[in-house]
Specification:
Elements (H helix, E strand, L loop, with lengths): L3 H17 L5 H41 L6 H4 L9 H8 L1 H9 L4 H4 L2 H11 L2 H6 L7 H16 L3 H10 L3 H18 L17 H16 L1 H8 L13 H16 L5 H15 L4 H18 L12
Helix pairs in contact: 1-2, 1-12, 2-4, 2-7, 2-11, 2-12, 9-11, 13-14, 14-15, 14-16, 15-16
Length: 314
């Protein structure tokens, strides 16, 4: 689920926190990095749980309506198409999800059920819900399309839910777009015959990615002084105080990848840090960072310092 770019963002945030903190404990900050990545996976679980909780809330709504003193015919015999949505049932019955929800303590929507109610009311009164409920039966594709529509049109753009996520964990705001994309991919892959023991996406796509996260953090921090020296005389028109700290960290990380990660192409490293800079630093940062990293890469190549393995990695 975590992309290499997002891993770089997490490492950048941890390095920034380390430099800002008075506590210069290496192992503490590495634990912060690991915690930050795990919490992103928690958000993935929280958002999946929200889908099932909306369904549960709607089921309770129908039950309460049927117990009115004078229920209507529709309330006595309600359309349970949404309650019986097969995609939601797959989520509810998946053993890996159940175990993950329990293990990671995903009880947010029990504690803060008002957000489930807000979403349900918005969904229930929408034209999309009305169209979906015009019949009492549907194909699996229709069920899946509707759940994906709920995520795209109601859950993801909801401002109150966004504020709740930001208030719960500040880093979740940065994680949300990637998490929503991961959920969409997961939902799209579901099939009608998906078994209860079907595996769910993992935090890391491969052991290599998990190792990359740890090594990038460790090598960037362990070689911080040497990486800083590589920048000397490469910013003649910039005083040290004028360079944004995030930019300095991104440049050091880029240099670290060029010199210490033999399997990553130089162009990939430069492009990745330019994209991160566009999102997390100043408007001119990407141009500034590109100039320094490009200049250094050419010098390293001339000096035969780029220890890259395989073709096309220079």
């Amino acid at each position: 689920m975590l992309t290499r770019r997002h891993i770089r963002v997490k490492v950048m945030q941890s390095l920034y926190a380390f430099h800002q903190s008075e506590n210069k404990n290496f192992s503490t900050e590495e634990k912060f990095l690991q915690k930050s990545m795990l919490e992103m996976y928690d958000l993935f679980l929280v958002m999946l749980k929200l889908i099932t909780e909306i369904k549960t809330y709607s089921e309770n709504y129908l039950e309460k309506s049927s117990k009115k003193f004078l229920p209507t015919q529709e309330e006595m015999d309600p359309n349970k198409k949404f309650v019986d949505n097969r995609v939601v049932k797959i989520l509810e019955s998946n053993q890996y999800l159940q175990d993950a929800w329990e293990e990671r303590g995903i009880t947010h929507w029990k504690r803060d059920s008002e957000y489930v109610a807000i979403l349900w009311e918005e969904i229930r009164n929408s034209k999309a819900f009305e169209d979906y409920m015009t019949t009492r039966e549907s194909t699996f594709k229709e069920d899946k399309d509707f759940i994906i529509l709920l995520l795209r049109e109601f859950i993801a753009p909801n401002d109150k839910l966004y504020d709740y996520i930001e208030d719960t964990k500040l880093t979740w705001v940065d994680d949300l777009p990637l998490v929503n994309t991961a959920i969409l991919k997961y939902l799209n892959k579901l099939k009608e015959n998906t078994p209860d023991d079907a595996k769910i996406p993992k935090l890391f796509k491969s052991p290599d990615d998990e190792e990359f996260a740890a090594n990038l953090f460790r090598k960037s921090l362990a070689n911080d002084d040497d990486l800083a020296k590589e920048m000397v005389d490469k910013t003649p028109n910039w005083d040290k105080e004028r360079i944004a700290e995030i930019d300095t960290i991104l440049i050091k990380m880029g240099i670290c990848e060029m010199l210490h990660f033999s399997s990553i192409p130089v162009k990939v490293s430069i492009n990745e840090y330019l994209e991160v800079a566009k999102e997390y630093s100043t408007p001119k940062s990407s141009i500034f960072i590109n100039g320094i990293l490009d200049k250094l890469s050419k010098e390293y190549q001339e000096q035969n310092r780029l220890n890259k393995m395989g073709r096309g990695l220079m």
